[in-house]
Amino acid sequence: MMKMVAVEEVCGRQVACIIYDSIMNFVDAVAGRLKLPSIVLRTTTAAYMHSHNVMFQLLAEGFIPLPESQLEAAIPEVYPLRFKDLQLPATIEIPQIVLDFMHSYMDIRSSSAVIWNTIDQLDRWPLQQLEQHWPVSFFSIGPFHRMAPAVATSLLEEENSCLSWLDKQAPNSVIYASLGSLAIIDEN
User: Fold this and answer.
1) Which GO molecular-function terms appear in the entry (predicted)?
2) CATH number, domain at 101?
C-alpha cells in the first residue's frame, strides 16, 4: 500500500503544486490526496493536441472510417488539416483500447493549468480552440528542446559510462527501461 506523506515532509519544504506529464495521469489522484493543485505538462504542441479533439469530433460525426479516396480532402473547419494528416489512420475503424488511451491522455482531470511545449505565435489558433475545450490557464513556454543543454552522447557510439556503476550492483537488482532511445537489447 502506498503511504501518503504530509506536504511538509517532502524535502522539508512546503510544496506549491505538482507538475506532471500527461501520460502519468495517476499523478492527478496523488495531488488530490495531498490536497495540492496540479498542472499538466504537454510535451507536444497545441496543434497536435487539437488534432486529437478533431479526431474525436470526426468519429462522433461518423466521418471515420472514410474511403482512401478522401484522404487528401481538407477536414471541414480545420483547414489546412487533411484527413491523411491525422495522427491515426482515418480509413480504418480505430480499436476501442486506442480510443480509451487517447481519451485518458487528453483528459486534464482536476488540473488547474496546462503547460504547452509551444509558443503563442506558432499555435495561436489551436490554443484558442483548446481554451474553449478546457477552461483553465494555459502557459506556452516552449520550445523545450531550446532550453536543455546539448547532450554529449551519440547514437552511433556505444555508451559505457554506466558499466562501472552497474558492476557494483547486486545481481538481478537493476531494471533497464528505455524511454525513447534507439537501443536494441537482445536476450543476453
Assistant:
1) quercetin 3-O-glucosyltransferase activity; quercetin 7-O-glucosyltransferase activity
2) 3.40.50.2000
DSSP 40-108: EEE-S-HHHHHHHHHHHHHHHTT--S--GGGTTSBPTTSTT-BGGGSSS-TTSPPPHHHHHHHHHHH--
Tell me the pTM: 0.68
* Structural domain of 139: 7-150
In-domain check, residue 174: no
Instruction: Find all residues with CB under 8 Å of 58, minimum gap 6, and list them.
Output: 64, 75, 86, 90
Specify if 94 maps to a domain.
yes
- Please report, in tens digits, the pLDDT of each residue of the chain (188 residues total): 334 444 445 555 678 888 988 888 888 898 999 899 999 999 888 988 888 889 899 999 988 899 999 999 998 878 788 899 888 888 999 999 999 988 888 888 889 999 999 989 989 999 999 999 898 999 998 887 776 666 666 666 777 777 888 888 888 777 766 555 555 556 66
9: cell is: 515532509
